[in-house]
Amino acid sequence: xxxxxxxxxxxxxxxxxxxxxxxxxxxxxxxxxxxxxxxxxxxxxxxxxxxxxxxxxxxxxxxxxxx
Length: 67
Ligand SMILES: [Zn+2]
Prior knowledge:
By secondary structure, the protein is α+β, with helices and mostly antiparallel strands. Helix content is 51%, strand content 18%.
């Protein structure tokens, strides 16, 4: 009985560790895309990718650039 309980707790802890690992890896990826700097093709301004708008494979800093 004790062996079974130990086995179950080991499986649960491994499962939780794997889940935490994948979550932190995902968060790291999100942080990296947040800090990425792109250049606006219209005014050549360097801006964070989160504030840029993707148009035809290039980046724009504001919606008013899109025609
Ligand atoms: Zn611009």
